Amino acid sequence: MDSRGEWTMSWCKGTSIVRADVELFGLAQTMCWTKDFFFGSQPKSIVITSPSSSAILSLKLQDPKRFTADFILFQNSLTSFISSFPGTLLTFIWTPAMTNYCAQTVSVQAAEHCRAQTPLDQLDDHPSPTKWRSLTRLRAFDNWREEWLRARAEHTPTPNHPNQRDKQAYSLSINGPPNSSNHPLWSAAAKRPQAGSTPSRVTPRPLPYGWQTCPCDGTTPATTTHILYDCPLHRESRIASDMHTWLATSTPLMTIFNTKNHVEALLRFLQNSHAAFKPYTAIPPPEPD
After folding, report:
1. Number of domains in the chain
2. Which residue has the higher pLDDT, 37 or 285?
3. How far apart are CA 20 and CA 221, in angstroms?
4. Is residue 133 a part of any domain in this protein?
5. Residue 287 maps to a domain
6. Is residue 145 a part of any domain in this protein?
7. CA-to-CA distance for 128 and 86, rounded, in angstroms?
């Protein structure tokens, strides 16, 4: 918390290549963990920074029914989170993803769409004000875009042969900068000191709720990416994804939560990951050597 009594959380894992349900799951996970971690404190302001809001808009345009179901789940968790901090200003900052920078306009439209379609400051008449805004005028990103457009005017790179800058931007979006607290791109997006750990850079502290070891092997952290992509407990319901061709798919949230889309089920899942797992096939114990 800084001198102004403000907590800042960041969902820093690049999400431009995954579906919007993964992004909503990650935001809900971050909020639920923060709700427990800061229990008993009363911050004046909480800021949640998330990239790739364009994924939400894309899902809305492609599949309105699925968007509604997933976003209701997110709404419920958000309402519960806000009610735990009465009088706290909650701010969502949408930042353009580094690998999809030219879609800044789409990010702005997504933020405006969420604000227009979902007046979250009026949900259940909770007392906490909520605002949505898009942080798009980032100097580092602007410079990158100008150079990229200038390069395209002279020579258009083929999709199979990206230039070095594209590779670097892609690597940053997936893995995060080596020192996210001091990196110019990261600090420009966050604007304020970060609190707690992020999915792409875990600090040496006990795993927060939702990050217990996964019951599939007892050692892998139950991260969002692992649960939706890698966990063998959901192998049959998951279509193999190809990150290199940008054809990422995942286990639907409604499948994981067994169609229980009320916030209590979400909180139980995040606080005790293995409680919500419904294995499709039994995993035999390892054979002794």
Report:
1. 1
2. 37
3. 22
4. yes
5. no
6. yes
7. 5
